[in-house]
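ok here's the first one, seq then C-alpha cells
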Amino acid sequence: MNALLIARWQFAITTVYHFFFVPLTLGLSILIAIMETLYVRTGDETYKRMTVFWGKLFLINFAMGVVTGILQEFQFGMNWSEYSRFVGDIFGAPLAIEALLAFFLESTFLGIWAFGWDKLSKKLHAATIWLVAIGSNLSALWILIANSFMQEPVGYVIRNGRAEMTDFLALVTNPHVWVQFPHVFFSGMTTGAFFVLGISAYHLLRRRETDWEVFRRSFQIAVIYGAVGTVLVIFLGHSQAQHMVQAQPMKMAAAEALWESENPASFSLLTIGNEAEQRDVFAIRIPRLLSLLAYNRLDGEVKGIKNLQAEYEQKYGPGNYAPPIAITYWSFRIMVGAGFLMALLALYGVYLLANDRFTTQPRYLQMLMWAIALPYLANSTGWLLTELGRQPWIVFGLQKTAEAVSPTVSGGMVLFSTIAYTLLYGALMVADVYLLSKYARGEAEDEAILVMAQA
C-alpha cells in the first residue's frame, strides 16, 4: 500500500474541505463590519438586523473553519515528518505569529462581539468586528507567507540537511506573497459577496414584507462589494500569472498544456492532449495571446513542458518534473471561467441597482442563488492549481514530495486515518449544511436569532 499516495489524498481532501470555510470568513467578516458601521453611523435598526442575521451565519462558518483547520497542522507531524523536519526552522516563525497574534486577535474579539451587544457601546462593539476582520485577514497573510516559501524559497541556507532561516525580512517580503495574498484577499471578498447575494436573492424572491428591507439593503451592499472583489481578483490574478511565468514556468506551461517553448506564445482556448506522449490530440489556440498575457506585449517566450523538463534534468538530475497536466490545465480554466462569470453577474447587478430594477428580475435572482457555488468552485480549483502545479516539489527546487513523507508511518495507518477523517468531515459537512440552511432561510426579525446573538 503506497503511503505517499494515500497521504497526498488525505491532505488534499482535508485541505480542500477546510478551504471551503476560509475565504468566506475573510470576506464576510468585512461585509458584516461594514453593515454594523452603517448601523452606528445612522442608528437605523435595519442595519443592526442585517448585522445580526449575517453574523449568525458567520459564527457557524468560523467555528467549522477552526475545527477543520486544526487537522492540517497535525498532518505535518503525522504524515509529513520529513517535510516538517526540513522546513521547521522556516515555518516556525510565521505560524507562531499567526497563532499568537492574528488568530488570537480574531478569536478573542469574535467572542467579545458575539456576547457584547448589550455590554459595549455601539462604537466599541463595531470596533470589535473590525478587529475580527483584521485578525482573519492577518491570519491568512502569515499562512501565505509560510506557503510562499514552498512556492518560491527565499531567505534560507541549507545546513545539516535542513532549510534554516537566515533572513526573516526576505521571508516576509517574498515576492510570491505579494502577488498571492491580494488575490486571496479579494477572493474572500468575492466569496462573502456571493454568499450574501445568493441568500438575499432567495429572500427577495419570497417577497416577505417583514424581511424585504433587510435583504434589499443586504443585496445593495453585497453587489457593490462583489463587483469590486471580482474585478480586482481578476486583475490581481493576471499579475500573479505573470509572476508565475518567471518564478514557476513549469506550472504555467502545465496550465496552458504548452509542450514546446513558443515565442510569440499562443493561448490555449481548448486542448485535449495525450499526457503520456506529451502532444496535442486536438487544440484550438489563439496566436500571441499568451505572450500578451505574460508580458503585456505581443511577443515574448513562454517555456514549454519538454524544454523545462530538459532544463530541470540538467539542473536537478534525472526525474519527471512535470505536474499532472490535465488537472492543472482544467483547474486553471475552471477557476478563470468561474471568476469571469462572477464578474459578469456582479457588474450586471450593479447596472440593475443603478436603475433600481434588481428586485424585479426573478431570473437574475434565481441565478444568484445557484451562483453561491461559483466562488467555492474557483477557490478550490485555484488551490489545486497552486499546489498541484508545483509538483513534484513540495518545496520548489529543494525538496520533492516523495522525500517529505513520514518514513515510519505505513500505508495501512495512513489509510485508516484517511477513512476516519473523511467520515468525520462528511458528518461535519452535513451539520454545517443543515445549520447554514436553517439560519439562512430564517427570518431576519426572528427574536430567537437576536436573543442568541445577544446572549
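and now the second one, same deal
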Amino acid sequence: MPFPDDLLSIDDLSAEQLLQVLDVADRLKADRGERLAADSDLAHGALRGRTVALLFEKPSTRTRVSFQVAVTELGGQPLPLSSAELQLGRGETVADTGAVLSRYVHAIVVRTFAQQRLEELADGASIPVVNALTDLEHPCQAVADLQTFREAHGDFHGRALAYVGDGNNVAHSLLLAGAKVGLSVRVGHPEGHAPDAGIVTRARQLAADTGATIEVTTDPVAAVAGADAVYTDVWASMGQEAEAAERAARFVPYRVTEQLLAHAATDAVFLHCLPAHRGEEVTAEVIDGPASRVFDQAENRLHAQKALLAGLLA
C-alpha cells in the first residue's frame, strides 16, 4: 500500500500503514546494534544518496537529534536549517520556500508553529513534507508512543491509555493514533484546556471502526482508572510561558503522582514526551520510578522516524 505524499497529520496514515510503520520501527530497533557494527556508513540504505532538510522554527533536543541520526543511519544526508537562516525569516512566502527546497532536497522535516504554516509549505513543495511538531499535532511523537506502549503490553485492543493535562498537540495525535489501532484513549483535562473538538470527533469516527473508545473528562481519576498507560506533558509549552503561572494553579489536580497512578492498572506504564518538570506535571517518584518508560519512549523517536522516512521515501 503506497504511503501518502506527506505526513502532516497522523491521520494521513491508514491503520494498516501505521501498524506497518510500527513493525518496521521494531525491526530497525532490534537490528540497530548489528547494523552499526557491520556497516561503516551506518546505513540501511533507504535514503542512500538523498538529502533531507530539517527546518526547525522552534528549539528542539529529541526531535532534532533523532531526525538527524535517523537520516544518517538510513544512508542519507541531513541538512539542518533554521528559519533565521532562510528567506523564510525575511518575508519569502512559506509556499515559495517549499518549492525552492524541492529543487535541492528529497524531503523536508518541519518543526513549526501553526498547522497552516506547515500545510502552506507542503502545498508549495513537490517532495514529502513531515510534521515534526505543530501547535495542532505531533504525529512522529505519537508513533513512538504507540511503539513504546506495544513494547510494554504487546497489543492495543482491549487496552486504554490515559492522557492527563493540557489537551494539546500531543493529546491530539494520541487520540487519532490510538483510535486507528484500537487503543482506547481517555483525556483528563482542566476546564478550558480540552482537546480540539474536531480532533475528538474524528478520533471517535476512527474508533467506531476499531472498537476503541474515546473519552474526554475533567476528572483525572476517572481518566486514569484502570488504564494501561498514564501519559502527561508539560503544563505550558513553548510559546505559552506567559500563561505558566495561571496554568500551574489550574493544573495541580492533574499532576501525575503515585496516588493518581495507583488508580491505573497494576502493570500500567508512565509515559511523557519530555522535557519533564519534576514536581510540576509529574513527581520524581513517578517519572524516575519502576513504571516509567520515558527514556524508551524518547529512544523510540529515532526508530519510529526512521520507519516513517523509509516509508515516505520508498
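notes on #2: The chain has twelve helices and nine strands. Residues 15-38 form the longest helix (24 residues).
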